[in-house]
Amino acid sequence: RLARSRPWTPARLCRAAAASGCEEERFVFLEYEPEPSEAAAPAPATVTAAAPAPVTVAAAAPPRQQRKRGDERAPGRDRPPAPMGHPDPSVPPSGVSCPGCGAELQCCDAAAPGFVPTEKYRSAAALELRGTVCQRCWLLAHYGRALRLRLPPEQHRQTLSAALRRPPSHGRAPLLLYILDVMELPDPVLPQLLALLDPAAPVAGLLVVGNKVDVLPADGPGHLARLRQRVTEACEHAGLRQAPLVDVRLVSARTGFGLEGLVSRLQRSWKCAGDVYLLGATNSGKSTLFNILLRSDYCKSRAPDVVDRATVSPWPGTTLNLLKFPIINPTCDRIFRRQERLKEEATKTEDQLSNEEKKNLNRLKKQGYLVGEVGRTFQQQKSIPLVDFDPDMLSYSIDEDPTHSPKKHEKREEFTYNEVKDARWCFDTPGIVKENCVLNLLTEKEVKLVLPIQAIVPRTFILKPGMVLFLAALGRVDYLEGERPAWFSVMASNRLPVCISTLSKADAIYEKHAGQEFLKVPMGGEERMKEFPPLVPQDITLKGIGTTEAVADIKLSSAGSWVAVTAHAEEKLLLRAYTPKGTALVVREPPLLPYISAIRGARIGGTAAYRTKRPPSLVENLKTTGRR
Asked: What positions does the domain NOA1/YqeH-like C-terminal occupy (predicted)?
């Protein structure tokens, strides 16, 4: 076992026995080894080179936790339980929505949305089911486990279309806040937005929010401006004439980057004129954004105590119906107080933060390259609860046992009529299902490995004609023809392995290792691969523009994964890319991060790989001290 080293130290070389019995050389980048307490942090990147076996870049398994002596936990105690409870078809639906996903709570059909076990349903019915979540949301929140419950795409669209075709409230058409995953550009759902709108009732405007910018490293000066331009071009190509484009913002709903600016933009231009709808494809981050806006200056001060947070999960289609919170009226006094708070926070340095704030900031820095903080100016002062005191309950004779008063249920806070009678609402809507997406083919565990939830560390390789690059068992790029080597930079989840081989051995490697730990995803062995669709090829011709700038991205299967190709100027390349049958392969020109190949370390001798390099994180709204 290797000792921990300081960040940015050179890779250590060690030898280990491969599963097949041959000896391999492993380059372990210890700077990315997670702390023992960080279960969600990316595992250390590993480069494996076995002669003549293929070269692999993978995520090493975290150290196994040793069970302490005397630990009497039964095996499987920490495993998520199987769905419990029985349905009762005789009980009608409640008419109350699940606060996590929006589905109507019911106990008559365990396979339908909103199911609550009959025993819990009846006990909660006495409290009118307020605050009760469905079994699916409960398992997601407590165990991260998703029940295989998906509505047909047509039902998602019907729910969303019916909401957008409602008569305008307060005489003002709604504002559409379209959440777009910048890694998925060009967005496959954006052109379908017009079909959901009512031509007779045009919307007031469209504000496009490019989300998940925190996981992308800065490949050069002005990279955010280039990303914003890519999002603007995607809107123009979608032909959204019925919904005029108001603005394009770049944010991270997970780390808070850009969200204070988004709230200011909404309050300055839209104010409280009408309702706001959060739209977007599945897994674009709508519910995460909904939750952080619920804890911001955009909602009424008492809303966080009344409205429950939406359930967030990497599983596509978590939100099944509408969720909402009331928007605060941004009066001149409120805007002034908010601006004063932002000015005061901008003068702080990292050293002036509390220990808890520093701990949270360091956690966010490990998760993303761009970090921000979302504060609250208007908070409801909570009253001190009164304690019921009954002297008679404390007086008893020596012959009597003390009696205990029955436990009272805490009364759930609700909005008053005057608070919401003229309210404008912010709605979270069901995600629009992406067709031809590889996530539709994956299991719950595989989805968690494939989706990039941490800052992506680019992995660059230099390949000669006749070499092959595998991204797990989900994608493959063959370098068929070219005069000189070219650079292939992989932008994907840090937990997905990359395997480099030759054309003559590529098919045999896939047949042997697909479904196994070597290629990691899919997982489940031969039985899993029998039901998984085969890889189908598509030929690609590219012409290089220089060794410092990528010519195109090969976007694999709409899962936030792509390979940026960099070649010598005027160099013609013939490539063949593979994705699972039924999924979409897109050649993105110009590339999203054209200078991504520059984010790399020195070449690792004897392999096609370069050492990885993680750029530093940028913190928004904090005064810099000149110290790195």
From this structure: 488-589
Select from 434, 533, 517 the least CA-distant residue to 475. Answer: 533
What integer is the mean pLDDT of 431-448?
86
Residues 268, 177 share a domain: yes
Residues 158 and 129 in one domain: no
Asked if 467 and 191 count as a contact pair (C-beta separation under 8 A), the reply is no
pLDDT at 274: 83
Q: Which residue has the higher pLDDT, 627 or 84?
A: 84
Longest dimension (CA), the chain: 100
pLDDT confidence of 206, banded at 50, 70, 90?
Answer: confident
Provide mean pLDDT across the span 127-143: 73
Angle at 30 between CA 519 and CA 447, to 5 degrees: 35
CB 341 within 8 A of CB 377: yes
Residues 130/412, Cβ–Cβ less than 8 Å: yes
Residue 187, helix vs strand vs coil: coil
Instruction: Give residue 66's pLDDT.
Output: 43
Does 533 lie in the same domain as 554? yes
For 284, counting Cβ atoms within 10 Å of its Cβ (0-12 exposed, 13-18 middle, 19+ buried), the class is: buried
What's the DSSP call for residue 324?
E
Does residue 410 sit within a domain?
Answer: no
The answer on pLDDT for 76 being more than 70 is no
Would you say the C-alpha torsion 283, 287, 291, 297 has a positive or negative sign?
positive
132 and 195 inside one domain: no
Distance CA 167, CA 574 (A): 54
Q: What is the CATH number of the domain that holds 219?
A: 3.40.50.300
From residue 244, how far is each of 206, 260, 427, 456, 536 by CA, in Å?
A: 6, 23, 20, 34, 39
Judge whether residue 417 has pLDDT over 90: no
Residue 393 lies in a domain: no
Q: 234 and 259, same structural domain?
A: yes
Same domain, 592 and 480: yes
**Under 8 Å CB-to-CB from 158, ≥6 apart: which residues?**
none
What average pLDDT does the structure give for the chain?
78
Q: Other C-beta atoms within 10 Å of 481: how many?
A: 13
Residue 91 lies in a domain: yes
The residue segments making up the domain with residue 281 are 153-375+417-436
Q: How many CA atoms lie within 13 A of 277 on its CB side?
A: 29
- Tally of helices (H runs) and strands (E runs) in the chain: 15, 22
Q: Are residue 92 and residue 185 in the same domain, yes or no?
A: no
What is the C-alpha separation between 349 and 335, in angstroms, rounded? 24
Q: Do 550 and 564 contact (CB within 8 A), yes or no? A: yes
User: What integer is the mean pLDDT of 538-552?
Assistant: 96
- 220 CB-contact burial (10 Å; exposed 0-12 / middle 13-18 / buried 19+): middle
User: In the predicted model, is pLDDT for residue 7 greater than 70?
Assistant: no
Q: Which residue has the higher pLDDT, 5 or 365?
A: 365
Rounded CA gap, 367 and 254, in Å? 9
Note the pTM of the prediction, 2 decimals.
0.78
- Dihedral sign for Cα atoms in the order 193, 199, 201, 204: positive
Instruction: Determine, yes or no, domain membership for 271.
Output: yes
Statement to judge: residues 121 and 196 lie in one domain? no
| pLDDT given for residue 320 in this prediction | 64
Measured in whole angstroms, the distance separating CA 444 from the mean position of its chain's CA atoms is: 14
Domain count, the chain: 3
Distance, in Å, from the CA atom of 428 to the CA atom of 130, rounded to the nearest integer, reads 19
36-50, 106-120, 497-511, range with the lowest pLDDT: 36-50
Spatial distance between the Cα atoms of 584 and 580, rounded to a whole number of angstroms: 8
